[in-house]
TrEMBL record:
The keyword Oxidoreductase applies. Residues 626-740 form the Molybdopterin dinucleotide-binding domain. Residues 55-508 form the Molybdopterin oxidoreductase domain. One of its GO terms (biological process) is anaerobic respiration. This is Molybdopterin-dependent oxidoreductase.
Amino acid sequence: MSSAETKTLITSSHWGAMEVDVRDGQIVAARPFAGDANPPGIANILPEAVHHSSRVARPSIRRAWLERRDRSGRGDGDYVELPWDEALDITATEIARIRDTHGNEAIFGGSYGWSSAGRFHHAQSQVHRFLNAIGGYVKSFGSYSTGCAQSIMPHVFGISFLKYTYESQDSWQTIHDNTDTLVMFGGINPKNSQVSMGGITEHVTKDWFDRFAAKGMTRINIGPQRSDAPKGCDWIPCRPGSDTALMLALAYVLEEEGRTDYGFLNRYTVGFDRFRPYLIGDSDGQPKTPEWAEQHCGVPAEDIRALAQRMSETRTLITVAWSLQRGEHGEQPYWMSAVLAAMLGQIGLPGGGVGYGYGAIGSIGKAMNGPRGASLPQGENAVKTTIPVARVADMLLQPGEPYDFNGTRAPYPDIRLVYWAGGNPFHHHQDLNRLHRAWQQPETVIVNEPWWTATAQRADIVFPATTPYEREDIGRSDLDDYLFFMPQLIPPVGEARDDYEIFSGLARRLGVEDSFTEGRSSHAWLTHLYADLETSAQSLGVELPEFETLKSRNWVKLPIAETTPRPSFLSRFRNDPDGAPLATPSGRIEIFSETIDTFDYDDCPGHPIWLPPSEWPGSATAETPLHMVSPQPGDKLHSQLEAALADKTGARPETLVIHPDDAVERGLSAGDLVKVFNSRGACRARVAVSADITLGVVALPTGAWFGKPGEAIDPHGNPNVLTKDIGTSRLGQGCSAHTALVEVEKIG
Ligand SMILES: Nc1nc2c(c(=O)[nH]1)N[C@H]1C(S)=C(S)[C@@H](COP(=O)(O)OP(=O)(O)OC[C@H]3O[C@@H](n4cnc5c(=O)[nH]c(N)nc54)[C@H](O)[C@@H]3O)O[C@H]1N2
Ligand SMILES: Nc1nc2c(c(=O)[nH]1)N[C@H]1C(S)=C(S)[C@@H](COP(=O)(O)OP(=O)(O)OC[C@H]3O[C@@H](n4cnc5c(=O)[nH]c(N)nc54)[C@H](O)[C@@H]3O)O[C@H]1N2
Ligand SMILES: [Mo]
């Protein structure tokens, strides 16, 4: 092969498969996979990102830490580059010191983050396996995506939330065939369905919506932005954080007009008698009428009435975006949506009831039953301490302080060492200035990262990690019907090493190499994991090619049929509530939960109630009159690829969407540079004016890299300098990113 020859290979990523052109050891171009009829617009920036000057070139140790173990000043940027062996020696000695002095309870390895696609080189699995091999670590529960739902929904339906979402709720086909009215709280977002964890090869959400429209299905998006649902859907503008009030009013109309399905409630639910006095106002003097709800959510009372009538007269599927539980009291709209669906009596019928997170990632709604497995085993964690994932800053700031979580009360552990691989907390966490203060507490912070992200810039030890394009892997996602051999496209950039190699080197120095590697090279692990996938495929009657064949073919489309209708635990329950009871304490859907009631939480009592968030349009002040939502970015995945995107002329700071009237009031026009601020922080943004956002609401997407410590204003537009770092409630303790009031002011 001549050195100037261009080779094109396929690889998989969270945002879809890509065709990548490689020449002279460089990625020179990338495009979405040609077999995808609705390709996402994310791939093209790959070459610039992979070869960006912000790649970490060599192992780097912060000078103050290296010379005097000084932990103050994280983020000062003064690093010493060291040869790999020396850096690994120093790191292993430090890990051993902390473990031997303070125990494994002093090591935090939650390491939340999406990392990259690829079954073996999954950074989070790698770091967990390594930390388990050295005696364990404090881990985290749940995700920023759905942490709150993961806590509340098992109380209601007796099933894990993710099992409900991925394995049980209706497929697109079933919705297409049966649903008349699709009521989408928070929309079903086309930009979000571009991605799926582990990969998504064919993007089908758009096609299904085209078919829904052709069929004449009524599709109603309820929320702050029209663009949260595909074009052509009806839009009911609604204030963020107020959905529970609207759902209660819909329930009220059903009750008032004799539309409640008591037959369903009596047979399949418990606790409506405890909830009803609240709904009609007997317990608190406030009937939850449409007129009452209008004051909170801004939706006209007559529209609420008409919607309730339509929902009770047609086959209605209520869908709820994950974003609704990513706010203070996020438990309430989730629980209330189930109660509303129960009152409609359609739970367990095809195309009826309630579903969560459609569109949040592109594979939800695909009813694939493909081979599973090929995950790196993480081993046993000898440490049992777990924190809710979004409570990381609280943990670092308040060691030993007790906190409530879903009926338990435990003290935060005293963390001395933090190890992060595959996540970017200085992108994903709320109130970043507070996280920055918390981050100064541990004695040592270690990060494996391909790029000098804001998190890497705040670590004492930074190991340069390869990207998926610099190593071989298996690409496979449970809800996809493709299988990839992800080839090594280019040599490691700089001195980057695979996470596996980094952890193998540390494990060797800490005397646990055998238990970490089990004597396998990366390649041996790939064939080992592939055998696991083959076994799973065989049990489904699906034939996989030999590993070496897959390697030479690069990818195959698997003969996996969609199962429609999908066997649902709720349809089984509907057919036979005594024979197939739910795994709740009552065996029924819990409208009132005795369990939650005994927790005695005023921020999440025994049945759903309207609890206004502390920051939302209803509590707007003269200083902070606007509610900021911070959605996922449409042009990338979180903070990934940002290095290259930020270089594009005019791309940064990020774009802030504002209503025309709010813009006029502030003398703003499209393209203006603004400061977005509140008492927690400030960032710059570029204005886009749009009538497709609710008055009083602004939207600033996540993902711009957070700047340097001490900057009064974040230059790139990271909304997390403004968001509030509180749990959703003592029950869920999830991320409350969508709860934030701000003001916007023109700069210059
Ligand atoms: N305001 C606000 N904040 C939010 C949200 C919101 O809605 N609003 N959403 C939240 C949600 S749902 C999520 S999921 C989080 C996402 O937050 P994260 O998952 O932390 O975001 P990513 O940018 O995907 O971070 C992944 C990091 O892993 C690195 N990486 C990639 N591949 C590898 C690898 O092979 N090895 C190593 N060592 N590193 C690798 C990437 O360079 C990147 O820095 O953000 C949360 N934050
Ligand atoms: N392109 C792209 N796609 C992604 C990601 C990405 O980074 N990039 N990230 C993925 C991840 S990790 C996740 S968890 C999912 C997240 O999926 P979601 O949580 O569904 O998505 P978000 O973009 O956070 O929010 C969607 C919309 O919800 C609306 N919203 C906010 N608060 C409220 C509220 O209180 N009520 C109502 N009715 N609406 C509200 C906002 O207008 C916002 O635009 O997206 C995934 N998809
Ligand atoms: Mo997420």
